[in-house]
Structures are given as C-alpha cells and as structure tokens.
Amino acid sequence: VDASNACIPPTHPLTFQALPLPTASRGETIFLDGEGGRLNDNEDKRAPLMMYAWGKLIVVREIELNNTKTTTACASSSHVGPSGAPSTSGFVYRGHSAPVTAAKFSPAGTYVASGDSKGKLRIWAWDHEEHLPKIELQILAGPIKDISWDFEGKRIVVIGDGCQSPENAKVVQWDTGVKCGDLSAHARKKGSSCAFRPCRPMRIATGGAEDATVLFHKGPPFQRVVGDGIVSEKCHERGAIHSLRYNKDGSVLASAGTDGSVCFYDGKDMKLIKKVEKVHKSSIFSCAWNRNGTHVLTCGADGFARLVDATSGEIVHEWDVALAQLGDENGRTKVPMGAMLLGCAFIKGDVPIAVGFNGQIVLLSVPSSIGLSSSAEVIDKSLVITGHQAPISAMTFGAPGANIIYTADTDGVIVEWDGLTGTPKGRVKNIGEEDLDLTGKVHAGATITSLAFSTESSKLYSAGWDDFIRISQGQNCVDKIKMEAQPNAMTCGTSLVVVMTVDGLVLVKDEVISELIRLPYTATAVCISKDDSMLYVSGDDCNIYIYTVSSSDCANPLWESHVIKGGHLKAVQSIALSHDGTKLAAADSRDVCVYSTSDYSTIISKGRWCFHTQRIACLTWSPDDSVLASGGNDDDIFLWNIQKKMRRIHYRFAHRGGITGLRFVGGNATDGSGDMMLVSAGNDGCLNFWDVKEDVNKKFK
Which stretches of 13-113 are DSSP H helices? Predict the structure, then answer.
C-alpha cells in the first residue's frame, strides 16, 4: 500500500463522509484517541476529533457536540479539515495492509503513529493533503496493542505481543526508528498498554496482558527501575493491565485492569498513591484523564462508565450506557453483549465518550455539579451515534422528497440516514423480536444482499442470507417472508417486488409471494420498469432476458419477449434502466454497454466503455438520464455520457474494498440540489457524497 491510495485523492469532489463505527472484538480494548494534539485544538475552526480503527482503516471522526446540524451533506464552511480545506466531517486513512490495532496523534497534532496486527508501526502526516508516510517499521513480531508519544514528539513507545521475539515493547526515535533503550518484557512476551510521561524526567510505564504487572522505566536511554523499594509493580490482583494513562502534567499515572480496580501512582518515582477497588464489578477495559487531570473516566464489561475523583478516589458519577442505547428508563437485569464497554476517552478536553461491543458511540452528559469545565456541559442528554460496524452491502433511497437513505451491511444491520445532512437517524429494529444483545441485527447476523423501497406502500424490503425477506416501515421491521431459496438481489417498481434467488425468481406484491419461477439459466442481476410491466434479467450465459409481466395470469406471470445476445463477453453483473425507460445499461466485469429499449439495438457496445478492471457491481443514471455512473470492485467510480462517448470521468480509490451502492440523489432531495449529487456506499463501511456537477459540466458540456 503506497501513499497514492492511502486516502481519497484531494482532487476528488468529495463533500461529505458518513463514517463507520469502531471495530470491536469481545474482551479486547477499543483504542480511542480524543486529544488530537495542539493543531486540532482550535475550537473555532476545527471540530473535536476522535480516532479509532475499522478493520484495516483508521477513522478520524468529527464529533458534533450540539447535535443541531442542519446543513446539507457538503463541505463544512464552519470547520476545516487536516490540511485546511473545508471539512468533510471526518477522514479515513487506508495505509495499512493488516487490521489496525492502535493509533495516536503526536502532541503537535501534525503526525499520527499507528500500528497493526502484524507488528508494523507506520508514522504518517495528518496535516498534509495526501497524508504521506514518514516511516514504516516492523517493530514487533506480533500485534501492537498500544502506542504513546513523548511530550516532545520525538520518541514513541509501542507494546504488544512479542511472540517468539525477546521483546514485547520498544521505544524508538520517531523519524529514524532507532532504539532509545531496552524495555523489560512481560510474562509470555505479552503486553497490553503503555504510557509516556508528558514531562521531564522521562518515564515509561508498560502493562502486562497476563501478569497483572506494571513495569517502570527511566531514561533516555530507557531501562527498568527496580530494587529501590519505592516502585510499585504488583498493585493489581490478577489478569491484564488494560489501560495505563498519565495526567496532563505527568504528576500521576493511572492503571486499570481485569480486577476492576484503579490504581494511582506518583508520576516520577512510581510509588503507589492510592488504590480504588471495585470501581467496576467486572473488567475495566479503558481509562482516560480529563484535561485538568482531576478525574479519571473508566468503562467496563458491566456496561457502566464511571467518573473517579483522582484526589479522593470516590466515584462521583456513573452512566448506565446500556439504558442510553435502549432508551429504557425501567432498568435492566443483565448487561447486553452489545453494551459491554470496551473503550472510553475525553474529547474537547472534558466531554466523555464511551464505545461498546456494538460499536455505537455514546456522548455522555456531565452534571454541572461535578465541575469538570464548561465544555463538558454542552450535552444535556447522552447522545448515541450509530452506523455500521461491518462492510455496507446494499443501499437504497426512501420515498421521493423524503431525504431518507437506507443502508445494510454484512452483519444484518440496517441503518436509516438523513439524506440531507448525512447523519444516521437510527437502526432498524425487529418488532416482536427483542434485541437482547443490543447488536441491532435485523437479519440474525446474515449478510443483507439487497434493499428495495416501495413508493406505493412506503415499505422497505430487505433480502438476506438468512433466507428471509423482511419488511420495514421507518425504523421498525414489521413482517418477514420465508424464501425457498437464498435471495441474492431484488428490484422494485411501483408495487411489485422481484426477488432473484439462486434457483429462480419470486414475485412479491402486497406482501403476497408467488411460486418460485425457475429459469433455464442462473440469474445474475435484475431490474424492473417503474410501471411494473417490463422485467430485465441477466444470466450467467452473457445474455439479457426481457420479460413482460402479467398481472392477470398467476400461473405464468412472466412472458419472454426478447433476448439480447452477443452484447457481452462475460456474465452481466448489474443492469439499470434509465428514468424515462428508453435506455438499458448493463455491465460485466469489464464493459459497460447501453441498449435502446424500443428495439434493443446497441447504443454503446462492448470495447467502448471498458476501463473497469474488476466486477462492476452497480450502475445508476442521473435524474435527466444524461450521465451514467458505474462503480466496481476495483474501488473506482466512472461517469459516462452517451453524447460524449469518448470522454469519461474517473474517481480512483473511492472506497477501499469496492463499491456496493451508487445512486444520484435527484428527487430524493426536497430542495432540488441533488441532480448531480452522487451517493456511494462501499465495503469500507463509508457512505460518501460527491458533488460531480462541476466535473460533469467541464467534461461533458
């Protein structure tokens, strides 16, 4: 992975990104960095940032604290991004080739150090528009678990799994990778957390993943401090030290771990000051200091986040995060798996944030009586930021003019979005099937292959590999239909829904399902006309079959009226009908072709629009049918124009892992601004908004 595709190129007309939620593994700490460094601490021009991992990607999310965003999904005029350009609400870094396990901003906020599961440390520029890498090191033999910068931004300490190597922690110069000493290894070469003292004399603390030990080092060059009778290494009773953090002035170090206790040490001589036991009933996975260093925020597997006074050791406030997500004030009897808290941080200095196993980000409200700061009191009620934790597999729009977008992912989760602002409105829930684990899976953890919205009934249809078609209204899934075969795609006209399965086609109208219609070929894509009269089906034999739909003949509802042969050399993977119904676009793994629906003659033949290098997953027409957009598994989006056949617009690296959804906003926007606003969804869990109007006018007019 080189610098050219480590991010979306800055020349692309990306105006807004709806970002994925943090990746979570049960029993593993979710790293969160809410500090951002000095560069990102400008309250007027830069929104509060929070950084976390999503698979192989690093997500830097801008947090809207007031929750009153009313602007459209375009570049923010009030906030600026890392390079000074208008903000797109966040940023996704794609420079790692393995799952990211830790990342931290430098104290200046100009660089980021990130590590992955293969032990690679990568340092890259945050304030450069292309986010170029400074250095990449194979620093550990196993996964990196935590990273910390020194206060000068010159040294970095990393800790993780040493595997067969003698070292599980290293401290190096940030720009050369040269070691600055030798750090002692923990039991079985497994470390879990580290912290660099933010002042002189410098100290490094490392926590073990299995030995319940905190080791202290002084330097540079750094070496272990032992044998003076002051250093307190064995203050925790058992298990792992999940989190080690210094306060801002370096006077106190806090540690939290499996035993549910929080220990406070003198930042210089490492002597134990205080141990607060039973802060949580179960493991504490993360802790964080507020800006003034007066309170420590902790989160645990018991579903609670607690605020501890560092001076007295008292718990001054607690939040039941599960109730905040459930919206239930009647209490709960057990901790839902999705609400087990695995990460916490302070953003903007004193605004606490917690993240659970389900990835949802909860901004916690702080009572004024605690006296953190005025910035901590900007939230009157705890806010939940939802989205996707898995690759987005399908996308569709709601009713025209409703400004609603629906997306679904490979975990069976469906999210409703505000199409005007690009913010998530909530997850779709199964009515009558209680979501006891708070994971929000509508299709029982199965991949959702397709979404279709019926404008006549205002219902959303979703097809999943649990072999069900589920029917939703708003954010409530109200019904389901069992399928005889696995559904792979779906299309909807006005009132008729056609489901493509591995064995044939199924028609659904008014929630009444037809018999399975078996085909002499394997269907690969399907679309239907707006008036439900014509059905277009592509097969694995490289042909496109056109059927007339009969509403009166229940025994034989489909009549084959034409077959387009010889138009493609490979199986067609996606088809799309123009809005006026006069043109049919079809694409395989290389070519995009266009046919006239009047006589099925070829308008654009194979070999003309042939610049995709992998399967073309989606096609969409602009509202005036002048522009055709295609997106593929090669991460690219192309724009085509029939009048300018030799020209094309190419957006490279649009989504890491491929594009799975593509639509022009068009009539979905009430203000008429969506004619050339393109929305794309991809396997990177992002929903991207592109304003292609200027490029279209420049290239095709």
Answer: none
Element (H, E) at 592: strand 592-596
Q: How far apart are CA 599 and CA 51, in angstroms?
A: 55
How far apart CA 691 and CA 676 sit, in angstroms, is 6
| Lookup result for tokens 């260093």 | 293
Strands (E), 277-430: 284-289, 295-300, 304-309, 315-320, 341-347, 351-356, 361-363, 383-385, 392-397, 404-409, 414-418, 424-427, 429-430
CA angle 83/87/90 to nearest 5° reads 95
Residue 662 is predicted with a pLDDT of 98
Whole-angstrom distance, CA of residue 455 vs CA of residue 479: 17
- Which sign does the torsion angle of CA 392, 395, 398, 404 carry? positive
Per residue in 208-225, is it b (16+ CB within 10 Å) or e — as a string?
bbbbbbbbbbbbbebebb
Residue 590, φ and ψ in degrees, nearest 5: -145, -50
pLDDT on residue 520:
95
Distance CA 330, CA 79 (A): 40
The pLDDT of residue 323 is 83
DSSP letter (8 states) at residue 189: G
- Strands 517-518, 504-509: pairing kind: antiparallel
Query: What is the rounded CA–CA span in Å between residue 434 and residue 324?
Result: 16
Question: In one letter, which amino acid is 383?
Answer: L
Q: Which residues of the chain have pLDDT under 50?
A: 1-3, 68-71, 77, 329
Tokens matching residue 342: 């695995």
pLDDT given at position 674: 56
DSSP structure class, residue 181: B
**Rounded-to-integer distance, Cα 138 and Cα 439, Å:** 36
What's phi and psi for 113, nearest 5 deg?
-105, 125
Distances (CA, A) of 339 to 9, 46, 346, 602: 36, 30, 19, 55
Q: What is the DSSP letter of 23?
A: P
* Cα gap 335→304, rounded to integer Å: 9
pLDDT of residue 64: 81
The dihedral over CA atoms of 45, 49, 55, 56, expressed in degrees to the nearest 10, equals 50
Q: What is the pLDDT of residue 561?
A: 96
Cα(488)–Cα(574) distance, rounded to whole angstroms? Answer: 12
What is the rounded distance in angstroms from the CA atom of residue 241 to the CA atom of residue 193? 7
What does the pLDDT read at residue 73? 62
Q: Which helix (H) or strand (E) holds 696?
A: helix 693-700
Cα–Cα distance measured from residue 678 to residue 664, given in angstroms and rounded to the nearest whole number: 4
Spatial distance between the Cα atoms of 287 and 55, rounded to a whole number of angstroms: 23
Amino acid at 147: I
Phi, psi dihedral angles at 321 (to 5 degrees): -65, -30
CB contact at 8 A, 655 and 688:
yes
Residue 599: partners with Cβ closer than 8 Å, 6 or more residues away = none
* Model pLDDT for residues 595-651, shown as the tens digit of each residue: 999 999 999 999 999 999 999 999 999 999 999 999 999 999 999 999 999 999 999
Q: Taking the chain, what is the end-to-end CA distance rounded to the nearest angstrom? A: 36
Any idea what the Cα angle at residue 58 is, between residues 280 and 342, rounded to 5°? 10
Q: Which token pair is 325?
A: 């997500």
Residue with tokens 């032990």: 119
Cβ distance 630 to 592 under 8 Å? yes
Residue 589 CA to residue 614 CA, distance in Å, equals: 5
CB atoms within 10 A of CB 54: 24
